[in-house]
From TrEMBL:
Name used for this protein in its record: SDR family oxidoreductase
Segments forming domain NmrA-like: 2-246
Database matches in Gene3D superfamilies: NAD(P)-binding Rossmann-like Domain (3.40.50.720), UDP-galactose 4-epimerase, domain 1 (3.90.25.10)
Record SUPFAM superfamilies: NAD(P)-binding Rossmann-fold domains
Pfam families found in the cross-reference section: NmrA
Top-level taxon of the source organism: Bacteria
């Protein structure tokens, strides 16, 4: 049996879809109020309720470990590992981030690398997945609206990112959870070509038929907007570091993890945008 954590997020949903497509049985760990959003067998699970861990992992052999962005992230991983040992879990697939092993690294990278070390030291077979920036971020966080013209305000400068299709990452998750030969390995996952924010928006404009404009704002303006929204100070700092990675041209590195696992190249942003156009048209 496979247990997915983080299934209501971008990569969790992609992993569920890939497992459904493969016809593989699995269950999803969700908080009680989130069950309606998941079309799969669910089991109650709350990262902040230690009593929920053991029941969620009963009978589980393969655990997909995706924790929320939180200052408690490493603690969540430690508790999950301890419970996984008691439950007899045989394989943990950990979703980390590209650059987790950078030195000294940014806040989120350091958190994920600390979590990676705990997974590797657990005594349970492990696989680490390190994706880069998700294409879906353009919609979920950056301000692109698929059905109308939009303006995106980010402090990314002209830096490029090797945007990754979440569907690719979901397929990789499903593959390493259901096939042998991936234990003890780290896979870095990117798209096929680095694009600046302006270039990415131009591709989306061409595919979706709307005008998407990029406005490069100062870090100070972006920081103030996030602070004014009530975002925790540590997370504001972490997100500003992410934008600086792009702006300083540290996010354009390409990796072949998708090719290694799936035996095919990763999807380009244009392919993802074309798929989004069809989805948007189908829901209209």
């Amino acid at each position: 049996m496979i247990l997915l954590t983080g299934a209501t997020g971008t990569i969790g949903r992609a992993a569920m879809h890939a497992l459904h497509t493969a016809g593989v049985p699995f269950k999803v760990a969700v908080r009680s109020g989130s069950r309606a959003a998941v079309k799969a067998e669910t089991v109650r699970f709350d990262w902040d309720d230690l009593s929920s861990y053991q029941r969620a992992m009963e009978g589980v052999e393969h655990l997909f470990l995706l924790t929320p962005n939180s200052e408690r992230q490493v603690g969540y991983v430690l508790q999950a590992i301890a419970t996984a040992k008691r439950a007899g879990v045989k394989h943990i697939v950990r979703l980390s981030v590209m650059g987790a092993d950078a030195d000294p690294g940014i806040i989120l990278e350091r958190q994920h690398f600390a979590a990676e070390r705990e997974v590797k030291a657990s005594g349970i077979a492990w696989t680490i997945l390190r994706p880069t920036f998700f294409m879906d971020n353009l919609i979920n966080y950056y301000g692109v609206v698929p059905t109308r013209d939009s303006t995106v305000y980010l402090p990314n400068g002209d830096g490029k990112a090797a945007w990754a299709d979440p569907a690719d990452i979901g397929e990789v998750v499903a593959k390493v959870l259901t096939h042998d030969g991936y234990a003890g390995k780290v896979y870095e996952l990117t798209g096929p070509d680095p694009l600046s924010t302006a270039e990415a928006l131009q591709v989306m404009s061409e595919e979706l038929g709307h005008k998407y404009t990029y406005v490069n704002v100062t870090e100070e303006a972006a920081r103030k907007a996030q602070e004014d929204s009530g975002m925790p100070a540590w997370l504001v700092d972490a997100l500003m570091e992410l934008h600086s990675l792009v702006r300083l041209h540290h996010a354009s590195t390409l990796a072949d993890g998708v090719q290694q696992v799936l035996g095919r190249p990763p999807h380009a942003l244009r392919e993802w945008a074309a798929r989004l156009r069809l989805q948007t048209a189908g829901s209209a």
